[in-house]
From TrEMBL:
<keyword id="KW-0443">Lipid metabolism</keyword>
<keyword id="KW-0276">Fatty acid metabolism</keyword>
<dbReference type="GO" id="GO:0004300">
    <property type="term" value="F:enoyl-CoA hydratase activity"/>
</dbReference>
<comment type="function">
    <text>May play a role in fatty acid biosynthesis and insulin sensitivity.</text>
</comment>
<dbReference type="InterPro" id="IPR052377">
    <property type="entry name" value="Mitochondrial_ECH-domain"/>
</dbReference>
<dbReference type="InterPro" id="IPR001753">
    <property type="entry name" value="Enoyl-CoA_hydra/iso"/>
</dbReference>
<keyword id="KW-0456">Lyase</keyword>
<keyword id="KW-0809">Transit peptide</keyword>
<protein>
    <recommendedName>
        <fullName>Enoyl-CoA hydratase domain-containing protein 3, mitochondrial</fullName>
    </recommendedName>
</protein>
<comment type="similarity">
    <text>Belongs to the enoyl-CoA hydratase/isomerase family.</text>
</comment>
<dbReference type="Pfam" id="PF00378">
    <property type="entry name" value="ECH_1"/>
</dbReference>
<dbReference type="InterPro" id="IPR014748">
    <property type="entry name" value="Enoyl-CoA_hydra_C"/>
</dbReference>
<dbReference type="InterPro" id="IPR029045">
    <property type="entry name" value="ClpP/crotonase-like_dom_sf"/>
</dbReference>
Length: 261
């Protein structure tokens, strides 16, 4: 299967949907799948037609994590294992660092690095049939890299419970834990995701880029440093054409015309 077949791309009204398309392999994050996803994300970062990215999957499994058959074929190669986990970590950071919002559309099961993928996205909408787990502990391989994204989305004790037990978490509980934003009937999943994506796509792309970067940077700072940093960000943001247009449009009671600058 080619990279283009592994991950399909469709763009409509500023919303680009990337679909993991190896249902026969449970959309596992093989080396090839990770590289294809990395390449897609790099291209979309520079694509002027894309304002919001939706990450979806075909079949009944969103993503089962790493390809264990591939890992078994390279059990004696530390170099391969390190390359695989480094590439996976790179992809997760690409999502966070992408200058455009990324929404996970989750139908089915997301486990291990698949759960990590959901946690790495900026937003996530799940069908009520979706389930999540970090089950590495069950096979003697602790979900250490998925832990990074998971522990930055849910509380410490809930993250530890998922990591230590490896048990499945239903969609409703995942929403309560903060792993996903919304849980909806599977019949309206696409409609809900599209409505959310369209709302965000209607904002200034320049403003979204500034806000997403600032959000993740300030999270790693102390309180005083975070306020100093975001004050500077807002002062700089105020000089942008879109900020000035937005303020004038609000005061003039009209719809703003974004220039994305």
């Amino acid at each position: 299967m080619t990279a283009e077949e592994m991950i399909t791309v469709a763009t409509d009204s500023g919303i680009t949907t990337l679909t993991l398309n190896q249902p026969e392999n449970r959309n596992s994050l093989s080396m090839a799948m990770l590289q294809a996803l990395s390449d897609r994300l790099s291209a979309l970062a520079e694509d002027p037609e894309t304002r919001v990215i939706v990450l979806a999957a075909s079949g009944r499994v969103f993503c089962a994590g790493h390809d264990l058959k591939e890992i078994r074929s390279q059990l004696d190669s530390h170099e391969f294992q390190l390359e695989l986990f480094n590439l996976c970590s790179k992809v997760m950071q690409q999502i966070v660092n992408l200058p455009k919002p990324v929404i996970a559309r989750v139908a089915g099961v997301a486990t291990a690095a698949g759960c990590q993928l959901v946690a790495s996205c900026d937003l996530a909408v799940a069908a009520d049939t979706a389930r999540f787990a970090t089950p590495g502990v069950n096979i003697g391989l602790f979900c250490s890299t998925p832990m990074v994204a998971l522990s930055r989305n849910v509380s410490r004790k809930h993250a530890m419970e998922m990591l230590l037990t490896g048990e499945m978490v239903g969609a409703i509980k995942a929403e309560r834990l903060g792993l996903v934003n919304q849980v909806v009937d599977e019949q309206v999943l696409d409609e809900t995701v599209n409505r959310l994506a369209a709302t965000i796509a209607g904002k200034s792309g320049h403003t979204l880029k500034i806000g997403k970067e600032a959000f993740y940077r300030q999270l790693e700072m102390g309180l005083a440093d975070a306020y100093d940093y975001t004050s500077e960000v807002m002062a700089k943001n105020m000089q942008a054409a879109d900020a000035q247009e937005g303020i004038c449009a609000f005061l003039d009671k009209r719809k703003p015309e974004w220039k994305d600058e």
